[in-house]
Specification:
Strand content: 15-25%
Radius of gyration: 50 Å
Strand order of the largest sheet: 16-17-15-14-12-18
Number of strands: 25
Number of domains: 4
Largest sheet: 6 strands, mixed
Helix content: 40-55%
CATH class of the largest domain: Alpha Beta
Shape: elongated
């Protein structure tokens, strides 16, 4: 089967159509016939969507040199036309061939039709393939010439340039005549001819299809620029060529150099910030140690306050204690921000004692009220459920921001701090969405906030435009925005009521688990301080007969901690260095070692490791007592050689005593 043949018959009489069909069938053609006679039908068929493979035409107007044939041949020169005539071929063929016919047949030699068709179809296909090849070559040549990359073709035997596109000639700076005398050594600054041959040897041996390198290309002027080179082997007529495609990467190279400079700067800043972070960590340690010493010393002073005739000293002791605790908490908040190293968006919560928490906040601001001579009223409900599950750092920041604003914008009158369980009706009015809540209310008699601006005060960088208080513009406008964001993180709500010239009331509502609350209010009006709710840490009864060794480079802290532990243990020895610590261990029987993380003359971890690996001291519990922030691998390393880690913060002395007892009990049970 020779395939489908789209055949157009023009003016062929019916009696000959059958003969044509029979001949084509015997030649295994699969013809699709279309026969027309009238001029209109002929034009319509020729201009239709069909792609005709062959036209068999009969034209009876010989006097006018067969006008139908001439017209079709002129309009469709690529379609083979076989002229069909009943006359003698010898007389007609010469004329019709001149007019555009491809060949000529008659009823007497109809058998010639099949080989003629095969010949013409083969010829047409060859012509189409040739045209496609020429077109493809022209397209590829056009692409090569218009390419933004440099293209060189080198003869492998002579290594002379055989071809270069326009971009390559323009970029190299050589003339078109000079370019064909160039070798790779003239272009690639880092390669001699021998080196280049070694480079492309894997292509010649067909071990690689291509080679890519980055090198410098040399212009005629001697200027070099970086480029990415791709090499391939091409064989044509038993001749080998090296095709080199060069891509200018100057822009990329400069970007890389810029990136390297930026990386060096980044590494420099990282080192600088690391040193700064280490400095801050050490500073935090020193501050915690010093403030802890103040708090402990104050506690010891409070223990002996009954020896002083002036009973008013209790109030000052209480103020010193709470101010020191506030400052220590502030350091904790500054250096140990929640979720600092965690990507977890969930806020970490813990149970807090509501009265104790509120009392500590009150004590912090009582000194400010004294200084400004403003009444500071404190009210707290006597809750059945005294625990609130929340993030204490977030809550403290919210309350402290609100109280700071209250004192800032109240020149006379009073500030009130009230903690209570709101009634269901109150929660419904603010659409709180929970039946049970704790409310922290801060009320002042300050300048107030205009009604028109109350909806915007929680927006970032928003400051109230108050004609009677130009000092408001001194703030950053971030305090209330931070309060709002932290409140939302705690699933709470802040409600405001304010009138200009009368004052403002901010109420923070936080949800709690379902429980019953009493409404009994304990009121501490005016400047009277509430009784301290800090439990006494001194033991009553018999002291422990254990000997405690304290190694800390702060003499003040050692004095305070020694005095503290002397209420619990019979013997406490302190020293400020590792060297003196070893001397004490040689002459004294030590039951527990309290070791500061940062020592002047030693690495505390190395010292702990040495003691744990020493047969005479391995049984002694070691407690790290430090104000340094310890995280990750650093903490894991410490825990390998110590029995416990206690961080210096508010009330950490209580935890230290508890930890010492725990370690001593464990050590006794093991022995």
């Amino acid at each position: 089967m020779c395939g489908t043949l789209q055949l157009l018959n023009i003016n062929i009489e019916d009696q000959y159509l059958a003969s044509i069909a029979e001949v084509l069938s015997s030649a295994e053609f699969n013809p699709v016939y279309h026969t027309v006679y009238e001029e209109e039908d002929i034009n319509q068929a020729l201009n239709s969507e069909y792609s005709w493979d062959l036209i068999i035409l009969s034209d009876f107007d010989a006097k006018n040199n067969y006008p139908t044939l001439t017209s079709i041949a002129d309009k469709f020169p690529r379609i083979p036309i076989i002229f069909f005539t009943k006359e003698d071929i010898a007389e007609v063929a010469k004329t019709v061939m001149v007019q555009g016919a491809t060949d000529c047949v008659s009823p007497r030699d109809i058998g010639r039709l099949a080989p003629i068709i095969k010949r013409e179809i083969t010829r047409r296909r060859m012509h189409e393939n040739y045209n496609h090849a020429i077109e493809k070559k022209e397209i590829l040549s056009s692409i090569t010439e218009s390419s933004t990359e440099e293209v060189f073709l080198f003869n492998y035997e002579t290594l002379l340039c055989y071809y270069a596109n326009s971009r390559a000639i323009q970029k190299s700076g050589y003339s078109e005549q000079d370019i064909y005398r160039l070798t790779p050594a003239d272009l690639y600054a880092e390669y001699s001819l021998n080196h280049f041959k070694e480079l492309v040897l894997p292509l010649l041996e067909k071990r690689q299809e291509s080679i890519s390198i980055c090198t410098n290309i040399k212009r005629k002027t001697g200027v070099v620029y970086p480029a990415e080179i791709h090499l391939r082997l091409i064989e044509k007529a038993e001749t080998k060529f090296i095709l080199s495609t060069n891509k200018d990467i100057s822009g990329l190279w400069y970007k890389i150099q810029k990136l390297k400079r930026q990386r060096n700067l980044t590494e420099k800043y990282i080192r600088k910030n690391t040193r700064k972070a280490n400095f801050l960590a050490d500073a935090a340690h020193d501050m915690r140690t010093s403030i802890n010493s103040i708090i402990l010393s104050n506690k010891l002073l409070a223990k002996h306050s009954n020896e002083y005739p002036d009973k008013g000293i209790d109030r000052f002791i209480n103020a010193i204690y709470h101010s020191g605790s506030h400052l220590l908490n502030y350091i904790d908040e500054f250096f140990d921000s929640p979720n600092e190293e965690s990507d977890d968006s969930e806020v970490k919560k813990e149970p807090i004692n509501i009265p104790s928490f509120s009392n500590n906040v009150y004590q912090t601001f009582a000194a400010i009220a004294d200084k400004k001579e403003i009444n500071f009223n404190y009210q707290v409900s006597d809750f059945n459920h005294e625990k609130l599950h929340t993030n204490p750092t977030y809550l403290k920041r919210i309350i402290k921001n609100l109280l700071s604003n209250a004192f800032k914008y109240t020149q006379k009158g009073s500030v009130s701090f009230k903690v209570y369980a709101p009634k269901p009706q109150e929660l419904e009015e603010i659409d709180f969405g929970s039946e049970n809540a704790i409310a922290f209310q801060i009320k002042d008699t300050g300048i107030g906030i205009p009604k028109s601006q109350q909806d915007q005060i929680f927006e970032r960088h928003n400051r109230v435009d108050h004609p009677n208080a130009p000092e408001i513009s001194d703030g950053s406008g971030l305090g209330l925005n931070i309060c709002k964001e932290l409140t939302e993180a705690l699933d709470g709500n802040i409600h405001i009521e304010s009138k200009v010239g009368i004052g403002s009331t901010f109420t923070l509502y936080l949800p709690v688990e379902k429980s019953l609350f009493k409404d009994k209010i304990v009121d501490y009006p005016g400047k009277k301080s509430p009784p301290s709710e800090t439990p006494d840490f001194f033991t009553n009864g018999k002291k422990s007969d254990k000997t405690i060794l304290i190694i800390d480079d702060s003499m003040v802290h050692n004095l305070a901690i020694k005095e503290l532990l002397s209420f619990t243990f019979n013997n406490c020895i302190t020293t400020t260095s590792k060297t003196k610590g070893y001397q004490i261990l040689k002459r004294e029987s030590i039951d527990c070692i309290i070791l500061d993380y940062i020592l002047v003359d030693s690495d505390s971890i190395k010292m702990a490791k040495y003691l744990k690996n020493h047969k005479l001291y391995s049984h002694i519990p070691i407690i790290i007592y430090t104000g340094k922030i310890l995280r990750g691998k650093e903490l894991e390393r410490i825990q390998q050689y110590t029995d416990a880690v206690v961080k210096k913060n508010t009330e950490s002395h209580k935890k230290l005593i508890t930890t010492i007892h725990s370690c001593l009990r464990s050590n006794t049970s093991i022995s």
